[in-house]
Amino acid sequence: xxxxxxxxxxxxxxxxxxxxxxxxxxxxxxxxxxxxxxxxxxxxxxxxxxxxxxxxxxxxxxxxxxxxxxxxxxxxxxxxxxxxxxxxxxxxxxxxxxxxxxxxxxxxxxxxxxxxxxxxxxxxxxxxxxxxxxxxxxxxxxxxxxxxxxxxxxxxxxxxxxxxxxxxxxxxxxxxxxxx
Length: 180
Description:
The two termini are 33 Å apart. 37% of the residues lie in helices and 21% in strands. The protein folds into two domains: 1-31 and 135-166, D-Maltodextrin-Binding Protein, domain 2 (3-Layer(aba) Sandwich); 34-125, Periplasmic binding protein-like II (D-Maltodextrin-Binding Protein, domain 2), CATH 3.40.190.10. The longest helix has 16 residues, at 143-158. By secondary structure, it is of the alpha/beta class.
């Protein structure tokens, strides 16, 4: 909404390109393709191996309110009980505390949450079960800015900058030690 009311010019953080969203905003070319992954309470290790195993009323699944994670649960795991949370942190903590059985959210977030909090109380099903291109969003009617963003992304992918950034944040976990 703030983009559409001219409070800022671009959305750059984890915006999934969807057809519904594309009706009101324009997207640059995707900068990464991600999907939903699952943090599961350790008591289900060996029982829950993918999202289909959770499609049962005996499971309670959480995600963040208003996200593609929530949409994925409702569409692909309709038989499970569903609880939404205002923040990602709440959902992860509820899995750790055993109040919900699983938390579904974007792979990059879940991977970091697992590394930071994981091991003994949760496990991570890290193979994404959805296809979600993330892209920068701009208001409709600004083709010059959209063109500039697309050309910028083409340039950083062509000159190796994108690959360096991707490796630092998604393949090397050294930066996590700096924030712990």
